[in-house]
TrEMBL record:
The keyword Transcription regulation applies. One of its GO terms (molecular function) is sigma factor activity. It comes from the Bacteria. This is RNA polymerase sigma factor.
Length: 193
């Protein structure tokens, strides 16, 4: 969207968060690049949210795929005046989890039960976004070899042995880089919580 263009809400987009601009581009133009940006941004966050809500890793990945597919197919239902992109997507994820628990005959975990009329807490969403940015900044300050190992181990979910096989580096070197990188991250993020 060029600065002169406006979205269907009359905004030129410059005052919107990147996630909102991406979502509007998906909604209004079926923009695949914008969807890829949304996916890259939300998929790891959703996976963490889903795992913390009691689903296993493989099941969480399936739910994330299903949620993001729903985001693509139901993009026209997104209204930035009613909810932030993150709240809208997390609501879809929450509903998928509840449906899955009911389908499998399991009780719905307390953290997934919704109280009627309860709106998503925008301050919590903003706090998570700020913490995410602080983590990105702290990762960016790491030595490239430490950052690479941490990303492979934690974001790529590779074992130390898998990283060793992929990079050809000795296992001790990988463990050392991860340990030093995590110590640096802990120091940089000490005041976050």
């Amino acid at each position: 969207m060029s600065p002169q263009q406006t979205d269907s809400n009359g905004s030129n987009g410059s005052d919107l968060a990147p996630e909102t601009r991406w979502m509007l581009a998906v909604r209004d133009h079926r923009d695949k690049v914008a969807f890829a940006n949304l996916f890259d941004h939300f998929a790891p966050r959703l996976k963490g949210f889903i795992i913390r809500s009691g689903s296993a890793g493989a099941q969480a990945e399936e739910i994330v795929q299903d949620v993001m597919l729903t985001v693509w197919h139901k993009a026209e239902q997104f209204d930035p005046h009613r909810a932030q992109v993150s709240a809208w997507i997390y609501q879809i994820a929450r509903n998928r989890q509840i449906d899955l628990h009911r389908k499998l005959g399991r009780p719905v975990p307390e953290e997934l039960k919704e109280e009627p009329g309860l709106e998503p807490d925008a301050s919590q969403i903003i706090a998570v976004q700020q913490e995410t940015q602080q983590l990105k900044d702290a990762l960016g300050r790491l030595a490239p070899n430490q950052r690479d190992m941490i990303e492979k181990a934690y974001l790529g979910e590779l074992s130390h042995q898998d990283i060793s096989t992929a990079t050809g580096l000795p296992l001790g070197t990988i463990k050392s880089r991860i340990r030093l990188g995590l110590e640096r991250l802990r120091h940089d993020l000490k005041g976050m919580r």
